Amino acid sequence: MKIAIYPGSFDPITLGHLNIIERAAAMVDRLIVGVLQNQTKKPLFTAQERLEMIEEVTGHLPNVTAQLFDGLTIDFARRCEAQCIVRGLRAITDFEYELQLAQTNRIMAPEIDTIFLTTELKYAYLSSSTVKEVASFGGEIEYFLPQKTAARVYEKYQVKKNLNQATEAVDEQN
Ligand code: ADP
Q1: Ligand 1 in contact with 8 (CB < 6 A)?
Q2: Residue 132 annotated in active site
Q3: CA angle 12, 166, 129 (to 5 degrees)
Q4: Which residue from 62, 105, 151, 174 has the highest number of Cβ atoms inside 10 Å of its Cβ?
């Protein structure tokens, strides 16, 4: 049985990620999307929310599941009994970082291979952080995210906006 993991932050999942998931799922018996919990940069969504968003948009793929993980990717791969790690490559800027990660993982776990899938050209400039920036200024993000995910992002920024307004109102009163 061929098992692969696809680890990442997915804050939030984009159409670029989904494209990699669909293509990787067609290559293996089981694909486990790993949602990284221990992040230095503060994510917009909690790990649980990021996991739910992935589950929401991968329901059509019977061999795909999602799990939270922290610690080393290779330890997660071993727990999943996976033989490979899937990563997506967009531009040359991804290449150096990804190669470094893959080589480090290979030294620590030679039995696990990293497989790179190149992005669809139309998603080559798509990243979760760009989408968040666009959304924070009220821009349209439906081109970049699954519909359900886009709704959650708008909702999150609305909640943040309301919270900020409420805090400002309290500050003004004091
Ligand atoms: P990380 O913090 O581990 O880079 P991300 O959620 O940003 O997590 O990305 C997870 C993986 O998906 C990485 O391999 C990244 O290069 C890849 N990826 C991100 N966006 C795209 C995209 N638009 N097309 C293809 N692969 C992508």
Answers
A1: yes
A2: no
A3: 20
A4: 105
What residues does 117 pair with on adjacent strands?
Answer: 88
Side chain identity at residue 89, one-letter code: L
Assign 29 a pLDDT band (cuts: 50, 70, 90). very high
Specify the residue for token string 């900020």. 164
What's this model's pTM, rounded to 2 decimal places?
A: 0.90
Per DSSP, the three-state class of 14 is: coil
pLDDT above 60: residue 22: yes
Ligand 1 site-directed mutation target among 13, 69, 85, 90, most atoms within 8 Å of CB: 90
With both helix axes pointing from N to C terminus, report the angle between 128-136 and 147-173 in degrees, rounded to the nearest 10.
Answer: 50
Mean pLDDT of the chain: 92
Measured in angstroms, how far is the CA atom of residue 87 from the centroid of ligand 1? 7
164 exposed, middle or buried (CB, 10 Å; 0-12, 13-18, 19+)? exposed
